[in-house]
Amino acid sequence: MLAEASEESRVDGAVGRVVIVGGGTAGWLAACLIAARADPAAARPLEVALIESPDVPTIGVGEGTWPTMRRTLERIGLAEADFLLGCDASFKQGTRFDGWRTGRAGEAYHHPFVPPTDADPRDLVAAWNAAADGRPFADAVCPQPRACRLDLAPRQRAMPDYAGALNYGYHLDAGKFATLLAAHGASRLGVRHLRDHVVGVERAANGDVAAVRTRDRGAIAGDLFIDCTGHTALLIGAGFNVPFVDRSDALPNDRALAVQAPVAPGSPVASQTVATAHAAGWLWDIGLPTRRGVGCVYASAFMSDDQAADALRAYLRSTAPGTDFDRLTPRRLTFRSGHRERFWVGNCLAVGLSAGFLEPLEASAIVLIELSLDALLDDFPPTRAGMDVRAARFNELFRYRWDRIVEFLKLHYVLSARDEPYWRAHRAPDTVPARLRDLLALWQDRPPLRADLPRTDEVFPAASHQYVLYGMGGAAPGAGPVRAEGRGAVAALAEVERRGRALAAGLPTNRAYLDALRAERAPAALGLAR
Amino acid sequence: MTAHAILTTEAHRELRVRTDRNAALGDAVMTALVMPDEFRRAQNEYPILFRRTPGSDEFAALALFGFEPGENLFLENGRWDARYRPLAIDVQPFLIGRPASGAGDAQVHVDMASPRIGCDEGVRLFDETGRPTPFLERVAEQLGELDEAYRASGAFFAALRRHQLLEPLTLEVTLADGSTNRLVGFHVVDEERLRALDAAALGELHAQGHLMPLFMALASLANLAALIARKNRGTVGG
Predict the structure, then answer these.
(1) What 3-state class would DSSP assign to A262?
(2) What three-state secondary structure class fits A65?
(3) What's the whole-model pTM score?
(4) Statement: residue A28 has pLDDT above 90
(5) Residue A2 has what pLDDT?
(6) Which of B20, B79, B124 sits opposite A505 (nearest CB)?
(7) Tell me, which fold does domain A12-52+191-252+335-406 have in CATH?
């Protein structure tokens, strides 16, 4: 009887079989999140299968996450210590931008994950400006930059998993992360892991993907397909021919040169990603307890590959003296900032690089994977008939999000006063999206406000725009004719100072935290009884 | 073993002190000194009992955490399950020191042999500029308060003796598992004698600020039942 009923519902278009094509960070996050949130008591529990090609290496460069990752890992059911140790992960509390304003030495500002203290932004900016004590905006309105400067962890080990005294995400080894998720997904969450190469797509009469053809297993049928095939975009691109929207007019960087530099035992582990501007792009620096990932992002129209290698070498020489650059093996990556015109077509949803890629300045890659899956799972289509309306909504929401991220990334460049041709070209008015131009006009006479970014789940809220605007030297506007409401901003700033002092005293360094965690999990040495 | 040192910015700039609470850090104690000035804050957490200081006629007040030496029923998973801890235990590993001459201001000393010292995950005493952290500022306040309360306590215990307001406590606790714990050597406030004091005596105690702590100590005995319940939670099925 049961089998009959389920056969009947399949005819009705019930969504029961989810097939994920591709096994990188996107594929395994998709598999784990869908499997973890699937209801085992459902009339027809979801079956989740992931097809991973043994031939295709994963890109594995996205090594910074957002605070959203804590919620994701908790949903998947991973213990935080297992994750930290399994991925050589450390805590990320934001990004520090060095040399973006003029390129002068010592110039830096923070974009921390903790938003400015709770007061009307107009009052807060005015109080910061009035204090005139030379403190950068982020340092005055948020206790996190201080903790970052001291290389402190955002939490103590005694705290419950995923809780923090300060908001945080992670830096991680993307290769190890995919491996950890794969093991967890297959062993704990019941994901079927198929190591096979997809050689073709079988279409249904209505245009949907009916099945993917594999080299060894033949056709694998499904009701919902998730395209996690990276730049190949096997389903959304090659299959559905959804056009790619090129955003390189606003974001011209198109190359990266990445290395992994060794770190000395016991050396400090940075609390934030460091993004250092150079003549034609910027360098990322991501500290793990075991290594540093450093890369040079640049625009090939303004910088040759050799010049980029020189910039990378110079950066390593100044930040890691003693590193033998010639013994490192840089990887060259080519990309184009842009995204698909639509992400969900028929019964196929593109997640990860197949949906698009923007230069990694604000680590938007992994968070977009998480947000895509949250949107899918928060309103999961039980039947094929329920898909088209959801797909249209999804496409509208994510087109909005990609646009907003492009604008936020562009904000980092247009405020610069650097004089190199690359930077001047970045500021050319016709490369600045219209909505950003309007906002920049508004921010002449008032700070970024919630009304500027009105959706409930903005990827970058007004707070992020405030950090970048004032970090880049944006002038505090004068008082307007209408008073702001709310509590006193001066008292709020004093409270930030108190909280910063208390946190700086009570938090361990990243190195102390991670080494203690490792020592605790190490097998008992010297045969000590436990 | 102890190794007391005067706390200085130069010597202890990078020092971190553990503030979690567990047996390995010296928190597995049955009692801790509690000052009369603290009775009000301690009385809704712990029974407050009195005991003669060994080798002297003087009494001291103690907050009770367990029923046998080394037992602290408030310790749970690295934390101390109460809203208030007596200053004498809360300030550890810090102490009040005075210059050898005996004159001059009290100083903050630290017991460098304490297991709370020398861990990378503790709380810093000085920030990166050498300024005392809010944690150390609080410790210094607590030490000052403890010092003052200790100096004031002599008058309180003298008044107890003058009015003979203590009586021995004999408590036999039978636990849910049938075992018996005897609490011996402690005294409590003699409620009948307190009631029998005349107006002049009460007026004098009140004027000196001793009356409130007396009643607080009396009220604190209601916590004995809760402490026995804690003990039973640990023995039954544990």
Answers:
(1) strand
(2) coil
(3) 0.88
(4) yes
(5) 38
(6) B124
(7) FAD/NAD(P)-binding domain (3.50.50)
User: DSSP per residue over A263-306, as a string?
Assistant: --TT----SSEEEEEETTEEEEEEE-SSEEEEEEEE-TTT--HH
Which of B77, B82, B81, B66 shows the shortest CA–CA distance to B28? B66
Q: Rounded CA gap, A177 and A89, in Å?
A: 9
Q: What is the mean pLDDT of each run of 10 residues along chain B (238 residues)?
A: 85 92 94 97 97 88 95 92 96 87 80 90 93 95 95 95 94 85 91 95 96 96 94 68
- Put simply, the answer to whether B128 touches A501 (Cβ < 8 Å) is no
Active site residues of A: 92
Alpha-carbon span A466 to A291, nearest angstrom: 32
Structure-block tokens of residue A369: 């994977």
Q: What is the pLDDT of residues A352-372, one digit of tens each?
A: 999 999 999 999 999 999 999
Question: Which residues in A74-190 belong to E strands, given as ranges?
Answer: 90-92, 94-98, 108-112, 169-171
| Amino acid A183: pLDDT | 96
The alpha carbon of B196 is separated from its chain's Cα centroid by a whole number of angstroms, namely 30
Task: For residues B127 and B16, give the distance between their C-alpha atoms in angstroms, rounded to a whole number.
Answer: 11
Best of B121, B126, B128, B131 to disrupt the A interface (most A CBs within 10 Å) is: B121
Query: Across the strands, what pairs with A64?
Result: A171
Cβ count within 10 A of residue A266: 9
Which residues of B lie inside 8 Å of A (Cβ-Cβ)? 16, 19-20, 78-79, 120-125, 127-128, 133-136
What pLDDT, on a 0 to 100 scale, did the predictor assign at position A59? 59
Partners of B76 in the beta sheet? Answer: B79
Closest CB from B78, B120, B134 relative to A508: B120
How many domains in chain B? 1
Give the minimum alpha-carbon distance from A84 to chain B in angstroms, rounded to a whole number. 17
Separation in Å, CA A205 to CA A19, A208, A224: 19, 7, 15
Residues of the domain holding B89 = 4-235
d(CA A109, CA A131): 18
pLDDT, residue A8, reads 41
A362 annotated as a binding-site residue: yes
Cβ A19 vs Cβ A193: under 8 Å: no
Q: Quick: pLDDT tens for A274-307.
A: 999 999 999 999 999 999 999 999 999 999 999 9
The neighbour count for residue B232, using CB atoms within 10 Å, is: 16
